[in-house]
Amino acid sequence: xxxxxxxxxxxxxxxxxxxxxxxxxxxxxxxxxxxxxxxxxxxxxxxxxxxxxxxxxxxxxx
Length: 62
Hints:
Blueprint: H1 6-18, H2 20-39, H3 42-61
């Protein structure tokens, strides 16, 4: 990968400091996707399906 310029490095740092919540969401989403696609067994997938259905119900009730 190419070396980042100093300006790009500063811009990245500024964005990261300003968008901590977005970064957290991106990281959680990435971790969940990796777990589901690469590591989860049948029992894990069933549990995640339950969690997803529960969350959808909560969102639809608000």
